[in-house]
Specification:
Helix content is 45%, strand content 12%. By secondary structure, the protein is α/β, with parallel strands linked by helices. Strand 15 and strand 16 (488-491) form a beta hairpin. The radius of gyration is 27 Å and the shape is globular. Keywords: ATP-binding, DNA damage, DNA recombination, DNA repair, DNA-binding, Helicase, Hydrolase, Isomerase, Metal-binding, Nucleotide-binding, Zinc.
């Protein structure tokens, strides 16, 4: 039997395990069940791939998405690992061929969807496999899909307890990057993992820079961000609605960006084509609803942007976790406004879910709002939500890099709350601000609100500043939107009344000014350099990327399956000109050394020669 370290080095090209990987691998190799919580990009796949190569039999991996299976199998094939998948994308003849390979013991790993695994015919195949070549383990990827409170609930996952009942001697490993304490408890219960060892790694992604801004002109703010920091990078932009996705993608295209839309309303052919382009080409931007993303393994996504609020901290954490999977610097950038808050709460309250489910969803949304409005370290806030301590002062978020100013807003808050009360607790923020600013609009006249005591008392702030005050009061729980009154604001007495009575002060965050002059104009030239990673030799970096793209196109696979950016960066630093030197680079295993070593060494030699 090979050692785990030997497999790690010879197959995957790494000298050392990261974090808890080694403990997890040894536990599963020994036959133990495991629940693994590990952030995206931390190497969860190795935790079941290496035991599958060491233990007798084939590793059976339950995966929720076809795209994820294809990507994983292509990556393993590059390493000369015998892997395949069974899903609805295969024709009958190909599926039969894969099944024959499986039963003959010719595969190291097989990826299947939960629906196929539960098929009686496939369960019979597993019975035969268990009696013959053997089953090394069952890996249940994206295990949070089992939770009814989660954002990616898949009812088929509930049936996976059959694995434990039918194959009690086969170890199971359930893996997820996103699970708060209640979700974790539900995974344990639903998958019968009470006796499994739980490996909980830090949820921190220190390479991601988190930034949250007040939404003022979302598209122009977005382009300013892209032009300043990601002029040639691949990234994902999330929008709440399909219409917003298409509008934003078209707007970016019109301004010279390589952007594509993705949402459930597009045909399967368009979605597949756009996803394929995103995975296989450099510098492509995907504008999407949350229908896009789960199972996307592209490691060099340099940014994830949100033009609207996500629905929960779990959703936000998982979506932003699609950036920087290679461990290199990446951005998580978001703009939001009070309109987002009202829209999401309306979606929750008008939905068909039970009251218990709605209550949980409201709590999750409130937690995300608190995160947005917080003046504390963003990394600390995320980890606190998942029950993990963080010392703060991360040096890689907006609040730590540019500490937020606060101001004593007690007097202004009293005016805002009083205006809500005096106008009957049934109007939205636009009307309330009109009253505070003393604007005699038709609506103000219709309801005689030019005669209330709060009319015109708020002239010390402008409309944008009052918007900020109301948004923070909603986020802080002083006000809530009454969905039955189309988003009208009303007081939360237990929190608002002490402020109105002068018993409690309120400090709010000052909003940073936004300058339209900073926004790049259409047609502005894009920088060729990478603004995030300090590349010592730009010529060699570009030459290595070009060779990677050429080899990927020849094989019809994404470039990152040849080598990750982190591996190319190591080539730039060490400039290997012999196969022995090349073999010492992280991510270069035996198969890739033999397949690609000479190609990349020639690029290094030619570039060094041309640079003189």
């Amino acid at each position: 039997m090979q050692s785990s370290h030997q497999v790690l080095h010879d197959v995957f090209g790494f000298d050392q395990f990261r974090g808890a990987q080694e403990s997890i691998v040894e536990h599963v190799v020994a036959g133990g069940d495991a629940l693994v919580l590990m952030p995206t990009g931390a190497g969860k796949s190795l935790c079941y791939q290496i035991p599958s190569l060491i233990r007798r039999g084939v590793g059976v991996v339950v995966s929720p998405l076809i795209a994820l299976m294809q990507d994983q199998v292509d990556a393993l094939t590059q390493l000369d690992v015998k892997a395949s998948f069974l899903n609805s994308s295969l024709d009958a003849a190909t599926a039969q061929k894969v099944t024959s390979q499986l039963l003959a013991g010719d595969l190291d790993l097989i990826y299947v969807a939960p629906e196929r695994l539960m098929n009686p015919g496939f369960l019979s195949i597993l019975d035969r496999l268990n009696e013959g070549p053997g089953i090394a383990l069952f890996a249940i990827d994206e295990a949070h899909c089992v939770s009814q409170w989660g954002h990616d609930f898949r009812p088929e996952y509930r049936q996976l307890t059959v694995l434990h009942e039918r194959f009690p001697a086969v170890p199971r490993i359930a893996l997820t990057a996103t699970a708060d304490a209640p979700t974790r408890a539900e995974i344990v219960e639903r998958l019968s993992l009470e006796s499994a060892h739980q490996f909980v790694s830090s949820f921190d992604r220190p390479n991601i820079r988190y930034r949250v801004l007040q939404k003022q002109n979302a598209k122009q703010q977005l382009e300013h961000f892209l032009d300043a920091e990601h002029p040639n990078d691949s990234g994902i932009i999330y929008c709440l609605s399909r219409r917003s996705v298409e509008d934003t993608a078209q707007w970016l295209q019109d301004r010279g960006w390589d952007a594509m839309p993705y949402h459930a309303g597009l045909s399967q052919e368009v979605r597949s084509a756009n996803q394929k382009r995103f995975l296989r080409e450099e510098g492509v931007i995907m504008v999407a609803t949350v229908a896009f993303g789960m199972g996307i393994d592209k490691p060099n996504v340099r940014f994830v942007a949100h033009l609207d609020l996500p629905k929960s901290m779990e959703g936000y954490y998982q979506e932003t976790g699609r950036a920087g999977r290679d461990g290199l610097p990446a951005n998580a950038w978001m703009v939001y406004g009070l309109g987002d808050v009202v829209s999401l709460r309306q979606m929750v309250d008008s939905g068909e879910a039970s009251e218990d489910r709605k209550r949980v969803e409201r709590q999750k949304l409130n937690a995300l709002l608190g995160f947005c409005e917080s003046t504390d370290c963003r990394h600390q806030g995320i980890l606190r939500y998942f029950g993990e301590a963080h010392p703060g002062n991360c040096g890689n978020c907006d609040n730590c890099l540019e500490p937020v100013e606060t101001w004593n807003a007690t007097h202004e808050v009293q005016k805002a709350l009083s205006c809500v009360y005096r106008t009957g607790q049934r109007f939205g923020v636009t009307h309330l601000i009109d009253v505070l600013l003393g604007k005699v609009t038709p609506r103000v006249k219709q309801y005689f609100h030019d005669q209330v005591s709060t009319f015109g008392i708020g002239s010390e702030l402008n409309q944008s500043q009052w918007n900020s005050v109301f948004r923070q009061l909603v986020a802080g729980g002083y006000l809530e939107a009454d969905i039955a009154l189309y988003g009208g604001l009303k007081l939360v007495d237990a929190i608002a009344l002490p402020v109105l009575r002068g018993e409690q002060e309120v400090c709010l965050r000052k909003e940073a000014a936004y300058s339209k002059s900073k926004v790049a104009k259409s047609g502005a030239s894009k920088r060729s350099t990478h603004p995030f990673t300090n590349i010592a030799d730009e010529n060699l970096w570009e030459a290595l990327k070009a060779k990677r793209t050429e080899l990927a196109r020849q094989q019809g696979v994404p470039p990152y399956l040849i080598f990750h950016d982190s591996t190319l960066q190591e080539m730039v630093k060490s400039s290997p000109i012999t196969l022995d030197q090349f073999s010492r680079i992280g991510g270069v295993g035996q198969a890739k050394l033999e397949r690609y070593g000479t190609h990349f060494i020639k690029v290094v030699e030619a570039t060094l020669k041309s640079d003189g």
